[in-house]
């Protein structure tokens, strides 16, 4: 690791904040989800602070019933396309499912977003673990975990071939000769695989970044192997330094074993910072959020992760033995493992678990002063547990503004974070090259 | 038809122009397709002239080989989302296939575009007639015509239910009580049909227009029946007043027979205007385009429409008898019928047919002075052959600018076209209401 190693920071945006009760805060806009002005404000705030990118999570289904929390959101590639016109430099990473899309359509959309944003598109590839999502696409059960990742792998191979299908010298545009493009440089891909048959070529010129930055967020064994083959950035959830460092070593080793440069994979844990000018103020802030939580909501979410009913849990008991003893789920393997690990390590009741999950759905919550937040980020970064962080403000925009005003100056003082953008594309912010074209 | 009946005008945009050789003109930007600046210029030009909407055609496949004409384009909903942020009033109509998309994903994207544009989204529903498109989605042959329309009909029923799935009063956002939404007003749709099984609800709040303006462009029997059930605007191609008037009467009668108000369906033929200050100048302009045409390109396109090879045609002979005698195609029925009708009526050779199709792929080409263009538009509108037009400038932006500068003032002088926008949504420009919610 060279002296120039720089921290990467993404603004992970979510409605009125990551805390599940954020919409109830006095200053919150509870209609933030469908209010473009809210998103433009957040995008410009993050760009003014020179964040690497905006990131939006997603799934093609309603979240819960809507009773206790905003249950929907704008389709993320659409929202980020709109935000691309309100910003000029910040990267734009959308979560899109490889299970419920077709590679031709999605490769084309991502290439189009990369064109209209001037090379700022990123794709967080998810395989969609939920039963609610499956039911919107004709499936009565969640498709099996390994099968989803097999499809995702083939999806990526098809998408990369499509993005490469126009060579950079393909368009000649010789008006006098009447030759628009060299057809020998626009390639059919003629893919025939287990999941997809796609002739190509793509009907979009190769985008500025070659292809969008490829991001992955699953931490199951299948997920990590997939990441080692394809991911250029990894979003991950760890509640302790040790766990994060183990993951970091593991993923870098798997990447090397897959024949890729480990420095070409940027590992970004999430952090939910509750920031106060004193530790006591920070704890009071966190408590204010926790007091607004509706336990019934958390219980339903917990039941969904474990593919069971809320009645399977007793609030003042630990996780039921039947849950702990279950074999791997077909849905959210890494999320369910993370919750079990937390519950066992800290010997928590279900009520306590719900409190711990309320802020960031299992992500690392940190309560402290700006110096403490900056110190922890620095420790993880320097120690080899992270290449940067997904900043998950519990309330938006206020929590992001506080992080920018109070924590970023400390990180900049240490020379860890950029003062200005040096490049103009997302790949340039990450220090990653435009991929070679397989047809050259 | 009341005294207040107003003409509707859409700016049908296509790369450097609708004429297939437009990219070769001295002033053309041959890289227009992927140059966002080009599209923003066109969008602002059309909005400054108070056009009802922008319209983009599309298909999920490359057009030709690229040798003779720009073969690709940005995905239209992505492009229109970007343009929504450079404009504030003009409608935004994207062509998207019901054959190669899933209703949950597409309903969500369209609702999202409607949200971020403030109620300006329109969907031109196509069933995708081409073999090249089929080959990008695992199909070795074009899916049959009737089957595509049956799928489209079910697709629309699912999409409308999803758009309706949030009642307008669903979100309560009662912070104190911790009640976000009334779950009794966010509805599952539980659709189970021949093509789709979709649980719902949509994860996007009902959009400003209720649902996007629904547009249809196929003129086959299946297409017209589909339009009578679902379409609120119809894009159509007719080369004579008589044909257009026949179609107009037919579609209004079918709409009434389907139990809908015929005035709720806006019929918009395409027109490709070659405008000169004298008839002679206009003819010279049209000739300038025709001289740049590459016959080999047109021949390949003609062969594709008739699902055959270019070698099936002889340039200086009429259409082969074998083509005229063929039964209905599975692909582009209305386009192939239109070409046959033109060729037979005017006793054209293949070479002459290619010249007639070069400007607008079969749409009505009109060569004349601004007064003549305005007169023809007025005649079709007043006589009952059109409720307005899709303006298909042979070169862009120049042909659109000429139409705006020279033809629009004449139409405004007759009181036929708006001076200013009166509404802010696309439905308001068309004088169409927000549809009732089926769950109310």
TrEMBL record, chains A, B:
GO molecular function terms attached to this record: monooxygenase activity; oxidoreductase activity, acting on paired donors, with incorporation or reduction of molecular oxygen
InterPro entries: Diverse_substr_monoxygenases, Luciferase-like_dom, Luciferase-like_sf, NTA_MOA
Originating species: Actinacidiphila paucisporea
Identification of the protein by name: FMN-dependent oxidoreductase, nitrilotriacetate monooxygenase family
Keywords: Flavoprotein, FMN, Monooxygenase, Oxidoreductase
Entry's family note: Belongs to the NtaA/SnaA/DszA monooxygenase family.
Signal peptide positions on this chain: none
Amino-acid positions noted as binding FMN in the UniProt annotation, renumbered to this chain: 58, 95, 145, 149, 219-220
Domain Luciferase-like: 30-380
């Amino acid at each position: 690791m060279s002296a120039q190693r720089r921290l990467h920071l993404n603004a992970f945006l979510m409605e009125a904040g990551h805390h599940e009760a954020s919409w109830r805060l006095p200053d919150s806009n509870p209609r933030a989800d469908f209010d473009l002005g809210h998103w433009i404000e957040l995008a410009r705030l993050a760009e003014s602070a020179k964040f690497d990118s905006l990131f939006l999570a997603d799934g093609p289904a309603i979240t819960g019933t809507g009773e206790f929390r905003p249950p929907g959101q704008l389709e993320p590639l659409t929202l980020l396309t709109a935000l691309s016109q309100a910003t000029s430099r910040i990267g734009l990473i959308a979560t899109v499912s490889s299970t419920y899309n077709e590679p031709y359509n999605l490769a084309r959309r991502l290439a189009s977003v990369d064109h209209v944003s001037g090379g700022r598109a990123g794709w967080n590839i998810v395989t969609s673990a939920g039963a609610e999502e499956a039911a919107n696409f004709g499936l009565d059960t969640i498709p099996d975990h390994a099968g989803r990742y097999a499809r995702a792998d083939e999806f990526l191979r098809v998408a990369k071939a499509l993005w490469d299908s126009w060579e950079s010298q393909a368009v000649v545009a010789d008006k006098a000769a009447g030759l628009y493009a060299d057809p020998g440089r626009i390639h059919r891909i003629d893919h025939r695989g287990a999941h997809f048959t796609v002739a190509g070529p793509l009907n979009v010129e190769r985008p500025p970044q070659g292809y969008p930055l490829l991001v992955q967020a699953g931490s199951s064994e299948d997920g990590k192997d997939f990441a080692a083959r394809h991911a250029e950035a990894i979003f991950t959830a760890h509640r302790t330094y040790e766990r994060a460092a183990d993951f970091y070593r593991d993923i870098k080793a798997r990447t090397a074993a897959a024949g890729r440069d480990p420095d070409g994979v940027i590992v970004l844990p999430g952090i939910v910072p509750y920031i106060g000018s004193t530790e006591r103020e920070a704890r009071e802030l966190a408590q204010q959020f926790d007091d607004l939580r509706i336990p019934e909501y958390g219980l339903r979410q917990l039941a969904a992760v474990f593919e069971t009913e809320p009645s399977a849990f007793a609030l003042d008991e630990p996780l039921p033995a039947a849950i702990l003893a279950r074999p791997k789920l077909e849905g959210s393997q890494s999320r369910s493992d993370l919750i079990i690990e937390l519950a066992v390590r800290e010997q928590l009741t279900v009520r306590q678990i719900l409190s711990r999950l309320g802020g960031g759905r299992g992500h690392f919550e940190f309560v402290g002063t700006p110096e403490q937040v900056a110190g922890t980020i620095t420790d993880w970064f320097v120690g080899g547990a992270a290449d940067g962080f997904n900043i998950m403000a519990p309330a938006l925009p206020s929590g992001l503004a506080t992080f920018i005003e109070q924590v970023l100056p400390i990180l900049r003082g240490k020379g860890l974070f950029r003062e200005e953008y040096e490049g103009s594309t997302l790949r340039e912010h990450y220090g990653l090259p435009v991929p070679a074209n397989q047809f050259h």
